[in-house]
Amino acid sequence: MTELPALIAAFTTLFIIIDPPGLAPLFVALTQGMKPDQRRAIALRACIIAGALMLAFLFIGEALLGFVGISMPAFRIAGGILLFLTALEMLFQKRQARRQENADEGQAEHHDDPSVFPLALPLIVGPGAITTIILFAGQAKSAMDFVAIAGVMFTVLILVFAALMVAIPLDRILGKTGINILTRLLGMLLAALAIQFILDGISQSFSLGA
């Protein structure tokens, strides 16, 4: 897992799943009318909470699967299917609408501080991100592998924080059309990665059964 190709795959998958550019317009909507320092504090708090949740799933996610009797190959196949469905949502522009619904709900319930809900959960750490983290944790063979995965997670979170900090100018530069194009391109990449997860899970299942 510490090999460069594996780390690049982990980074790419998690980046596409979380989609920092796609979070930018939602952050603008959630923090509308707030001062820059308030927006900065909310973005930082959301990323810190998201990081804590990611670490929890990284270290106890696989143990939780074992506790309920789910094998890693089975979870890899199910996770691949979930990621593929997410990719389809991105390709057909359904995911952003669902995220907007979550954002509207969070704005209604937590108008003053949307950092926990819906920013940290489920916009940053959603089902897709949780699945991805557990899948890559299942590939870890040593403590250094877990450190490497944690490094990838925090790198993505840094990019999320940066995207939230430039949310207003980024939204203006890309526009609705630009964000739609970017989302579809990322959806294509995610679909290919999801199929690879499914194929790996099937291959592992046959290996264990042999």
Give an overview of the whole structure.
This protein is mainly α and 210 residues long. Helix content is 86%, strand content 0%. It has helices at residues 4-18, 20-30, 36-67, 72-91, 95-109, 115-124, 127-137, 143-165, 167-209. Helix 2 packs across helix 8 (143-165), helix 2 (20-30) crosses helix 9 (167-209) and helix 3 (36-67) runs antiparallel to helix 8 (143-165). The longest helix has 43 residues, at 167-209. It is globular.
Major sheet summary line: none
On the 0-100 scale, what is the average pLDDT? 84
Order of helices and strands: HHHHHHHHH
Report low-confidence residues grouped into runs of 5 or more: none
Please identify the structural class as seen in this structure: mainly alpha
How much strand content do the residues show? under 5%
Continuous helix count: 9
Total beta strands: 0
Spatial separation of the terminal alpha carbons: 25 Å
Describe the global form.
Answer: globular
Q: What helical percentage do the residues reach?
A: over 70%
Q: Brief description of this entry?
A:
Helices cover 86% and strands 0% of the residues. The chain contains 9 helices and no strands. Helix 3 (36-67) crosses helix 6 and helix 3 (36-67) packs antiparallel against helix 8 (143-165).
